[in-house]
Amino acid sequence: MDAMMTLPELKYLSPTTREKAMTIAQELIRTSNISPKDAISKAILIAKNWAVKNVTRSVWKKLKSIDNEAI
Question: What is the pTM of this model?
């Protein structure tokens, strides 16, 4: 698993997203018959989608609160 941390794909992720991707990759390797490289690729995509949804949700909440304050 330490070798996975040196992959360039993981270096460009935020620490939280990287941690999420590593957790997902470990779970994929453990539960399904998938190669580590494929597991990492799939985990990075899943983690990026998770991060975008979290950012979008927090931005939406901020915009909504600003909207309520303006009224």
Answer: 0.71
